[in-house]
Amino acid sequence: MSRENGSGVGEGAEGGVPEPEQLALIRDSVRKAKVPRAKPRTWRGAAVAKELPVARVLVDKGVLHLDRYFDYAVPEELDEQAQPGVRVRVRFGAGARNVRGGRREGGGLIDGFLVERVAESDYSGPLAALAQVVSPEPVLDAELLGLARAVADRYAGSLADVLQLAIPPRHAKAEAREFPEPPAPPAALDPGSWRRYERGPDFLAALASGGAPRAVWTALPGPEWAAEIGRAVQATLASGRGALVVVPTVRLAARVDQALRDLLGPGQHALLTADAGQQSRYQEWLAVRRGAVRAVVGTRAAMFAPVRNLGLVVIWDDGDAHHSDDNAPFPHVREVLELRTSRDKCAFLSGNWTCTVEAAQLVRSGWAAALAAPREEVRRVAPLVRTVGDHDLAWDEAARAARLPSLAWEIARTALRDGPVLVQVPRRGYVPRLACQRCREPARCRQCAGPLEAREATGVLACGWCGREEGQWHCSSCGGFRLRAQVVGARRTAEELGRAFPAVPVRTSGREQVLDTVPGAPALVVSTPGAEPVAEGGYAAALLLDGWAMLGRPDLRAGEEALRRWIGASALVRPQGAGGTVVVVAEPTLRPVQALVRWDPVGHAVRELAERAELGFPPVSRMAAVSGAPEVLSAFLAGVELPPDAVVLGPVPVRETVPGGGRRAGGAPAGESWERVLIRVPPGSGAALAASLKVAQAGRMARGAAEPVRIRVDPLDIG
User: Fold this and answer.
1) Is the CATH number 3.40.1440 carried by domain 51-149?
2) Class of domain 622-713
3) Pairing state of beta strands 675-681 and 369-371?
4) Domain range list for the chain
5) Which of these, 166, 216, 314, 588, has the minimum number of CB atoms within 10 Å of its CB?
6) What is the pTM of this model?
7) What three-state secondary structure class fits 452?
8) Cα 557 from Cα 566, distance rounded (Å)
9) What phi and psi, each to the nearest 5 degrees, are found at residue 548?
10) pLDDT (tens digit, 9 = 90+) per residue, 443-462?
11) What pLDDT digit, counting tens, does each position of 566-602 carry?
């Protein structure tokens, strides 16, 4: 239907969408029309900004029912400073009147981020005014905001919590500093040790030409991994793009930092670590945001670093627990970097001496390609691995007397003539799980395949996931009926070794003091997993004691984690051709031990992935852990609308209670007994699961529920 109006422009004879020429006329007439400007609204008699007078603000509350933007009036005196991305302070709390942020007088001042400026608010009443622009520095751009929102949705968390992880605290002196223009990108050099890998030079060439390859890299043992990451960064910078490297610890960040200095020279990259101090960390972060440097290496929080024109993201050792944040919503570096890869269309590199099941899944799905060395090269650089099993320990007098098997004692004695010997001892606190006494196969529930545990009060076997009691257990592998609790590591390893080798110095590296390097002179270096120092020239040998203490953990990842720890220590040992030998004290027939002997972490990960796929375990499925007091947890589950294909396992008691007062991070309140359920969904339903949990949690908070419920999507430990 045609409709004439005063301007003489109609919809056309057919009543459809105007033609392009008509749209141009409409836009031109609207632009030239003299529309009278509305009288600016005021706040307490003060004029507001004439252009875009409404500020959308994300308040820093971190609670789900307030996970949205609130509208505030922009005072005229703050018009120039109140730009999108800046930090602001607003009145919030007592006196809230409307969804969009209308306020009565009162309410406490709270920090927030100005997300955008708009012309009108959805709220029809008076708006509270911005109280203060904390800093004119725009720290939150659209790219970081979009990434943070994607992370919050994936982990059923709030946007404010993610931004608290992503943007470091402000430091005024750091903002006052002037940063120089970014240096010229370095030219791509020779591939160097990347030639040892079958497609290594091709990977670097793709980066240098502006490509976006995605690879899961199984690094060869030895110290070259840091320099190889440096060359990947160098190739990316040569293409005119930026690069981001995330490692699990400060010690490893220092190694990559030095490798980048050696390759790129000073001023080409920033180091972002949590222990750098507030001013230094914020200053380095600002250098990245302002484009003064285009490469970043850092620990966990660096996963959000605002690198301009991002061309490559790298994660080293994605199986390390340090990559999972301990603060809500508990994001994992690997998943965040995968999101950045998809959003920024950049290259992705996950590297490690070993291979996680999640990395194997990336290759299996075709999302990433495998990047590894030929078997001949692996055998050339890997140490010789020998095993000592339970049968050997049973008749070994030396093992009973000093906890050191005869084979390990002989190899250590010989190796100490040429250099240091590493002794890896599991740290205290590993909780033993149950396994078949005959074949050592872990005892699992017949209903959900979770780990079986003996309840403290009654000794009855019960599943640690679904809580089902198991009265007539027998081993599915060998038919045995007897169980064994795995051993816990000894406390006096250093003293015992000191007595066994009285003329050799003994050094320790662990929780109290972590050594970074040790000299190449003969010495015994006793270390807990993950704290092994690098020896000059490599260790002559390594002794991996009490393997059952790691294999016996009540965790789905026990075998994978044990192999990762063993390979991490063994990679510091000299090659077999130079006499390097590793002795692992564990049953030689077990899959992780065999993978270490063959130096085949990828094969182990592929077999673990196939097994988990058959049982419906992550990463083939998505899982969430929900914990709380029994009555509270039951009420929460009754109110949540889970996806129809969700499976609820549990509830079971949670061990994370602490005596006395206070609260352990992420655990149950002191003196209270919590329960936990695991909710499992098949691929494709993960987003629906996270959304349903987030909606239910937000509803509880909006109703003023005082009792906490803890939600963790994709938990690391589901044992």
Assistant:
1) yes
2) alpha beta
3) unpaired
4) 1-34, 51-149, 192-377, 381-610, 622-713
5) 588
6) 0.83
7) strand
8) 14
9) -65, -20
10) 888 887 777 877 655 667 88
11) 999 999 999 999 999 999 998 899 999 999 999 999 9
